[in-house]
Write a structure and sequence with these properties.
Chain A: InterPro entries: DUF112_TM. The complex is a heterodimer of chains A (497) and B (319). With 497 residues, chain A is an all-alpha fold. Chain A has one domain. Chain A is built from 22 helices and 2 strands. In chain A, helix 4 packs antiparallel against helix 13 and helix 12 runs antiparallel to helix 13. Chain A is globular, with a radius of gyration of 22 Å. Chain B is α/β, with parallel strands linked by helices and 319 residues long. Chain B folds into 2 domains: 165 residues, Bordetella uptake gene, domain 1 (D-Maltodextrin-Binding Protein, domain 2, 3-Layer(aba) Sandwich); 116 residues, D-Maltodextrin-Binding Protein, domain 2. The relative contact order of chain B is 0.18. The chains are: A mainly alpha (497), B alpha/beta (319). At the A-B interface, helix 3, helix 15 and helix 20 of A face helix 3, helix 4, strand 6, helix 8 and helix 9 of B.
């Protein structure tokens, strides 16, 4: 294993390859910062460039954009409450309150460093356990996915800082929004009021609307808060104290493990990983009340999870030649145009490519950390721009970003509608994060549940007779019991005092 | 003498055609497609645009108008001016949509001037290695236990799905058709043992077959495919006359003058003759296949009829 990894390092440390690795993560980072412009847009724009590069270099470049954008996504989430992907929604929950309480630098540092550690854990898993992870991933069929999503939804219902009922209501709203479009099992059009909605509501426009635009409206409506906050950007305030650092060790370890595992599951992984990591931290924290107000472990765990997931997400792509998501499909497309058909034989037939790409992840994560730490000061300065100048620019950028995804004007209009909805929701203390989770997980649950029913002739016991599914059902049961128990307990304590 | 004749030829040709066609094209052209940026349709469009802009001497812009299985783009292009400056990169889904949708904002055949197909590709019937000895064995097993053999496909109403339904109709075997989100997900399900068969393109099936994970039981084209000459066809094994290929091609709004359509057709055929272009199209699993407008029209008309029949008989919900 080590020999092969060294072979990979020898490929990636060639100066010209290294430049493309740097270029990739740097562009990814920038793209990630821009609200709404995702890795898909960036990769499809750069695809023609790869016609002129060899396969290994193209893949290193494109993969760099992908995981680089994960780093960048946290920056916009922390500073401006603008999540570009479902996984960075969780980053907003703790990151944005930190930024608002004048600790943006610290939040960015913790995010970058936990991302780095998570990424490194992910790469290590990729090097050491790609094949066993593939075997496990293949054991996940429709029943397992359905139960995994239920577990995710349950865990997420603990995310809201307000009442459970409110957060359930928001998950339900998200699921309802996720129903729009063609039904995957029959092809029937549901709630398709206009042809542009046939493919459903765009996740980007929902996230940008509920988080970004609503925040802009809220700030615009509070005249008093218009002055930019006085900022300290001393480098000393950027680093966590020793005690803070110590409190992050276990969250990062837990987050990285959760992320590494979920990332390897094709299709579902990354989105669930950071939500799960956050929910786990909250559940096992001694001080759950601190969450939602800028609690560092709540930032570190999901950050390490989503970066670990974005690395192990390459497992099905590299070992099976099966793309786990749309971005991976594009990367595979680039390989095919280079005359290399990725498949189970890639590791044997193209060891330089296979191990070179993996080694580039290792190098890329180090580069990302090196770019990120010095840039923190610069990013924090962004907050010094008066809101009345910053926000119009952000709104324009959101519109461009949303439009770039599907070249659809309808999406842009919907973003503004969701912005108003998000503003109203905030005023009535409904949180946007559960909406997004319901939106992502609801269709996955329906799709896999109905596929299970189709596959096994409507037999419900299948969820209990398949071992992995049974374990997941048990975990969900335990979560429910803990939830009921702790709320009863809280009531008893409240009654006593 | 000969030289003199040759130099005068273009002059004669120029005098023979109307002024509009003579100047065509005198500004940028657009090639519209109905799928996401970076997908196969986008890639083929860009490859063609690059080569054709060279021969036509004008820039060519690729425009993605995704949505509703490509019908958003078709609706858009059919209403554009038939002046030759707007064309569409179409895929086999154009014929499927004509059969699948209750109503479309365009006429699938009459609404277009078809220029030429670019590439044609068959589907492959694949199972896990060693599972079925042959295509005949698969169909026999399906007949012995109706509905027990599961075919994973890339989505309800996809050409892959309809091909599986057509196989069932023609052979009288009953399968359980299971929808997935895309060919990659269906292929993963086949590897994991959730389904028994997947029918999809060579880009999905070939790498697994080359690695010995899958057996390719049969190919859906009427004749054996030059790329895989050892693989028998569905027609020669279980269903005589079975012939399904999907395709990519270029269409324009109805009513484009013949001279202009001809100019574009020549540019398309010239581009396909460039090795770099045909190699890229082949790497995406297709056989480069320049055609006349009539051939492309006949191909689409034939497919619309077949898919209408399949959707009717299989009871697939129309949209």
């Amino acid at each position: 294993m080590l020999d092969q990894f060294l072979l990979g390092l020898s490929v990636v440390l060639q100066p010209d390859v290294l430049i493309y690795a740097f270029f990739g993560v740097f562009i990814g980072q920038l793209i990630g910062v821009l609200p709404g412009v995702g890795a898909i847009t960036a990769i499809s724009l750069l695809l023609p460039v790869t016609f002129y590069l060899d396969a290994t270099t193209s893949m290193i470049l494109l993969a760099g954009i992908y995981y680089g954008s994960q780093y960048g996504g946290s920056i916009a989430s922390i500073l401006l409450n603008l999540p570009g992907t479902p996984s960075s929604v969780v980053t907003c929950l703790e990151g944005y309150p930190l930024a608002q309480s004048n600790r943006a630098g610290l939040a960015l540092f913790v995010a970058a460093f936990s991302s780095f550690l998570g990424g490194m854990v992910g790469v290590s898993i990729l090097v050491l356990a790609a094949i066993p992870m593939t075997v496990i991933a293949l054991k996940f069929g429709a029943p397992e996915y359905a139960m995994l999503v239920i577990l995710g939804l349950l865990a997420a219902s603990m995310i809201g800082t307000g009442s459970q009922i409110r957060s359930f209501a928001m998950v339900a709203l998200g699921i309802a929004l996720g129903l729009v479009g063609a039904d995957a099992t029959t092809g029937y059009y549901r709630f398709v009021a206009m042809p542009e909605l046939a493919d459903g509501i765009s996740l980007v426009s929902l996230a940008m609307g509920l988080f970004g635009v609503s925040e802009v409206i809220r700030n615009a409506s509070q005249r008093a808060a218009v002055d930019a906050p006085a900022l300290s950007i001393r480098m000393r305030d950027v680093f966590p104290t020793r005690a803070q650092a110590r409190s992050l060790v276990f969250p990062i370890m837990r987050g990285s493990s959760i992320g590494s595992f979920f990332g390897a599951l094709p299709g579902t992984g990354a989105a669930i990983a950071s939500f799960m990591a956050y929910a786990v931290e909250r559940r096992f924290s001694g001080t759950p009340a601190k969450f939602g107000k800028g609690h560092l472990p709540g930032l570190a765990a999901p950050e390490s999870a989503n970066n670990a997931a974005s690395q192990t997400g390459f497992i099905p792509t590299l070992t099976l030649g099966v793309p786990g998501d749309a971005v991976m499909a594009l990367i595979i497309g680039a390989l095919i145009l280079n005359g290399i058909i990725p498949g189970p034989r890639l590791m044997v037939d193209q060891p330089e490519l296979f191990w070179g790409v993996i080694a580039s992840f290792f190098v890329g994560n180090i580069i990302l950390l090196m770019i990120n730490i010095p840039l923190i000061k610069l990013w924090v300065l962004l907050l010094r721009i008066p809101y009345q100048k910053l926000y119009p620019v952000i709104v324009v950028m959101i519109c461009v970003g949303v439009y770039s995804h599907r070249t659809s004007v309808t999406d842009v209009i919907l973003t503004l509608v969701f912005g108003i909805l998000g503003y109203v929701m905030k005023n009535y203390r409904f949180e946007p994060a559960p909406v997004l989770l319901g939106f992502v997980l609801g269709p996955l649950l329906e799709d896999n549940f109905r596929r299970t029913m189709l596959l096994y002739g409507g037999d419900f016991t299948i969820f209990l007779t398949r071992p992995i599914s049974a374990v997941l059902v048990t975990c969900s049961g335990v979560l429910i019991v803990i939830g009921i128990w702790s709320s009863l307990n809280a009531r008893r304590i409240a009654a006593r005092s | 003498m000969l030289r003199k004749l040759l130099t005068s030829l273009p002059l004669v040709a120029a005098l023979a055609v109307p002024a509009a066609a003579q100047d065509f094209p005198d500004r940028a052209l657009r090639i519209v497609h109905g799928f996401g940026a970076g997908g196969n349709a986008d890639t083929v469009s860009r490859i063609m645009a690059e080569e054709m802009s060279r021969t036509l001497g004008q820039p060519m812009v690729v425009e993605s108008r995704p949505g509703a299985g490509g019908t958003v783009a078709s609706g858009y292009v059919s209403k554009e001016a038939p002046d030759g400056y707007t064309m569409q990169l179409m895929v086999g889904g154009h014929a499927v949509a004509a059969a699948l949708y209750k109503e479309l904002p365009y006429e699938s055949v009459e609404g277009f001037t078809f220029i030429s197909t670019l590439g044609q590709f068959p589907f492959m019937v694949a199972a896990r290695a060693g599972e079925y000895a042959s295509m005949e064995a698969l169909v026999e097993a399906a007949k012995a236990a109706p509905g027990s053999i599961k075919i994973g496909h890339s989505g309800v109403g996809s050409t892959q799905h309809l091909t599986g339904e057509l196989l069932a109709l023609r052979t009288g075997a009953e399968f359980l058709h299971i929808p997935y989100k895309g060919g990659a997900a269906a292929s993963t399900a086949l590897m994991g043992g959730e389904v028994d068969v997947v029918i999809d393109t060579g880009t999905v099936i070939r790498p697994q077959a080359d690695a010995g994970v899958y057996d390719i039981l049969a190919i859906t084209s009427g004749e054996r495919w030059p790329d895989a000459p050892d693989v028998p066809t569905v027609a020669e094994t279980v269903s005589p006359g079975f012939d399904v290929v999907s395709w990519t091609g270029i269409g324009m709004p109805a009513g484009v003058p013949d001279e202009i359509a001809g100019t574009i057709r020549v540019a398309v055929h010239d581009a396909l003759a460039v090795p770099a272009v045909s190699e890229k199209i082949a790497s995406l699993g297709a056989k480069p296949s320049p055609s006349s407008g009539e051939e492309m029209t006949a191909l689409i008309e034939g497919q619309v009829a077949v898919w209408k029949d399949v959707i009717e008989s299989a009871g697939i919900e129309k949209r």
